[in-house]
């Protein structure tokens, strides 16, 4: 799932293409809805974007927001979605179907007659990629529920969030209504850097634990954003994979201590951790109850 660093990388990339410093902003020429389920709103027709110059490209949490003509095209890539850019789309509209294509946004032709644009695609059969067309961002339920951005939270506020959450610390980091922008992969990375078990009770962390977690959160995200910065959309996934230390590294040696990275699997996701670095050498039970093996 794309998280804050990759979404920010996509936003930065789109800005260079749609809001160039040395040319007028790009103009939306067409929006094609290619998947019946992708568009979650009906109040604003897609036709209102046509002919409108791009006014801004922003990020909130894991949402990409493209604004044009007073309308916001809000995109959430969910677990298996992605944005694919083309400097020259083929002419002609596509036919809606059941494949990976969900949405196409086409922009007015450049001086060479080429029409740039991007596609939203989603792998697999479980379709959760979501697009909203609204005049007010608060009309998007996910944005209305967002907590503060992870990199905007000060330590005192962060400590208060921890003390007020009786659940597991990994769940807190992933809860977009508590802290916005962190998902499964970076929560694993943050907890590894902080040397904390993913199943530690957030409210029971002491001051030292909270301090390490706060620093790890900021450092991990800032480094990931720096890695994503300036990369084309097509390179962001690979750069993320290469930088991960424990997430999706099951069976590999921990880069810090050399112990084997372990996994806990759930019905539709998994987490990875290092026993030596994070749980005092104990192996976490690989079951939904998430209790330590005795």
UniProtKB/TrEMBL annotation:
<keyword id="KW-0326">Glycosidase</keyword>
<keyword id="KW-0862">Zinc</keyword>
<dbReference type="Pfam" id="PF01149">
    <property type="entry name" value="Fapy_DNA_glyco"/>
</dbReference>
<feature type="domain" description="FPG-type">
    <location>
        <begin position="245"/>
        <end position="279"/>
    </location>
</feature>
<comment type="similarity">
    <text>Belongs to the FPG family.</text>
</comment>
<protein>
    <submittedName>
        <fullName>Fpg/Nei family DNA glycosylase</fullName>
    </submittedName>
</protein>
<feature type="domain" description="Formamidopyrimidine-DNA glycosylase catalytic">
    <location>
        <begin position="2"/>
        <end position="124"/>
    </location>
</feature>
<keyword id="KW-0238">DNA-binding</keyword>
<dbReference type="GO" id="GO:0034039">
    <property type="term" value="F:8-oxo-7,8-dihydroguanine DNA N-glycosylase activity"/>
</dbReference>
<dbReference type="Pfam" id="PF06831">
    <property type="entry name" value="H2TH"/>
</dbReference>
<keyword id="KW-0227">DNA damage</keyword>
<keyword id="KW-0479">Metal-binding</keyword>
<dbReference type="InterPro" id="IPR035937">
    <property type="entry name" value="FPG_N"/>
</dbReference>
<keyword id="KW-0511">Multifunctional enzyme</keyword>
<keyword id="KW-0234">DNA repair</keyword>
<dbReference type="InterPro" id="IPR012319">
    <property type="entry name" value="FPG_cat"/>
</dbReference>
<dbReference type="InterPro" id="IPR000214">
    <property type="entry name" value="Znf_DNA_glyclase/AP_lyase"/>
</dbReference>
<dbReference type="GO" id="GO:0003906">
    <property type="term" value="F:DNA-(apurinic or apyrimidinic site) endonuclease activity"/>
</dbReference>
<keyword id="KW-0456">Lyase</keyword>
<keyword id="KW-0378">Hydrolase</keyword>
<dbReference type="InterPro" id="IPR010979">
    <property type="entry name" value="Ribosomal_uS13-like_H2TH"/>
</dbReference>
<dbReference type="GO" id="GO:0003684">
    <property type="term" value="F:damaged DNA binding"/>
</dbReference>
<dbReference type="GO" id="GO:0008270">
    <property type="term" value="F:zinc ion binding"/>
</dbReference>
<dbReference type="GO" id="GO:0006284">
    <property type="term" value="P:base-excision repair"/>
</dbReference>
<dbReference type="InterPro" id="IPR010663">
    <property type="entry name" value="Znf_FPG/IleRS"/>
</dbReference>
<dbReference type="GO" id="GO:0016829">
    <property type="term" value="F:lyase activity"/>
</dbReference>
<keyword id="KW-0863">Zinc-finger</keyword>
<dbReference type="Pfam" id="PF06827">
    <property type="entry name" value="zf-FPG_IleRS"/>
</dbReference>
<dbReference type="InterPro" id="IPR015886">
    <property type="entry name" value="H2TH_FPG"/>
</dbReference>
């Amino acid at each position: 799932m794309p998280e804050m660093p990759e979404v920010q990388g996509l936003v930065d990339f789109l800005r260079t293409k749609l809001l160039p410093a040395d040319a007028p902003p790009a103009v939306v020429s067409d929006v094609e809805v290619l998947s019946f389920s992708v568009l979650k709103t009906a109040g604003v027709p897609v036709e209102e974007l046509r002919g409108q110059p791009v006014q801004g490209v922003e990020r909130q949490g894991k949402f990409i927001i493209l604004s044009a003509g007073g309308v916001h095209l809000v995109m959430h890539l969910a677990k298996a979605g992605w944005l694919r850019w083309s400097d020259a789309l083929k002419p002609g509209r596509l036919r809606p179907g059941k494949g990976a294509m969900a949405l196409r946004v086409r922009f007015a032709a450049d001086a060479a007659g080429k029409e740039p644009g991007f596609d939203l695609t989603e792998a697999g059969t479980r379709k959760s990629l979501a697009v909203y067309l609204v005049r007010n961002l608060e009309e998007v339920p996910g944005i209305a529920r967002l907590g503060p951005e992870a990199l905007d939270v000060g330590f005192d506020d962060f400590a208060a969030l921890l003390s007020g959450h009786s659940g597991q610390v990994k769940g807190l980091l992933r809860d977009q209504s508590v802290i916005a922008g962190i998902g499964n992969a970076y929560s694993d990375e943050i907890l590894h850097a902080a040397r904390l078990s993913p199943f530690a009770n957030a409210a029971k962390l002491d001051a030292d634990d909270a301090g390490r977690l706060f620093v790890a959160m900021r450092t991990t995200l800032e480094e990931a954003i720096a890695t994503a910065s300036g990369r084309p959309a097509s390179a962001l996934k690979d750069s993320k994979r290469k930088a991960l230390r424990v997430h999706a590294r099951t069976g590999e040696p921990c880069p810090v201590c050399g112990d084997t990275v372990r996994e806990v699997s759930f019905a539709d996701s998994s987490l990875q951790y290092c026993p030596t670095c994070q749980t005092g050498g104990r192996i976490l039970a690989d079951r939904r109850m998430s209790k330590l093996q005795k």
